[in-house]
């Protein structure tokens, strides 16, 4: 994938991550304001703070996103669906759900598909976007390929490499594998380990439509400086 290096091309692919376990209160509020100032695609904020984020970001181009079944995906599907509906009612329009990692590793593909379908259907009923997190650091390539196929079959909007809180994040090999294994209608998100501008450019060039990062300001400030040269 080739793309022209512009501020818009990078900033509008960033999901500004506000998920750190110690973040709360004023730090989350400032994170939302930072995301709006830099005009990024979305914030991905802790579920309890979705309503606050929606108030701050109202009238901006920055969407409100949050997590479902985070970070290990072990919640019952009914709980994930409830989380999804609650987040949407609070103002979220993008939901990043974690697959049930244990079921994936056990090869319980029917249960995995039902889990993804439950959240996907709840999202699409209101026009919200679902991003399905694989947590690739725990999976073999055959698991990743099968998940890509399931997500394509179920109409998920995005497939995503990682939570950012596993033992590893996005890798170039995984991004290539996922892009090959999912149909063109499913978009790709990299998360975990994209901490500088060159890494951001590299994953976008591989076909990522979104990139999760907590280093938004540093990356986009560096981009502005580079474009000004």
List its salient traits.
single chain; 229 residues; 8 strands; alpha/beta; 8-stranded parallel beta barrel; TIM Barrel
What does this structure look like?
This protein has 10 helices and 8 strands. It has 229 residues and is α/β, with parallel strands linked by helices. It has one domain: Alpha-Beta Barrel (TIM Barrel). The protein has an 8-stranded parallel beta barrel, surrounded by 6 helices. Helix 4 packs parallel to helix 6. The protein is globular, with a radius of gyration of 16 Å. The model has no long low-confidence stretch (mean pLDDT 97).
Percent strand:
15-25%
The helix count comes to 10
Element-level helix/strand string: HEHEHEHEHHEHEHEHEH
Major sheet: order of its strands? 1-2-3-4-5-6-7-8
Structural class: alpha/beta
**Helix percentage range:** 40-55%
Oligomer: single chain
According to CATH, the homologous superfamily is: Aldolase class I
Number of domains: 1
* CATH arch. level architecture: Alpha-Beta Barrel
Concise summary:
The protein is an alpha/beta fold. It has 10 helices and 8 strands. The chain has one domain: Alpha-Beta Barrel (TIM Barrel), CATH 3.20.20.
Task: Outline the secondary-structure elements.
Blueprint: H1 7-11, E1 14-18, H2 26-37, E2 42-45, H3 50-57, E3 63-68, H4 77-90, E4 94-98, H5 101-105, H6 109-124, E5 129-133, H7 141-154, E6 158-160, H8 172-181, E7 187-191, H9 197-205, E8 210-213, H10 216-227
Parallel strand pairs: 1-2, 1-8, 2-3, 3-4, 4-5, 5-6, 6-7, 7-8
Helix pairs in contact: 2-3, 4-6, 7-8
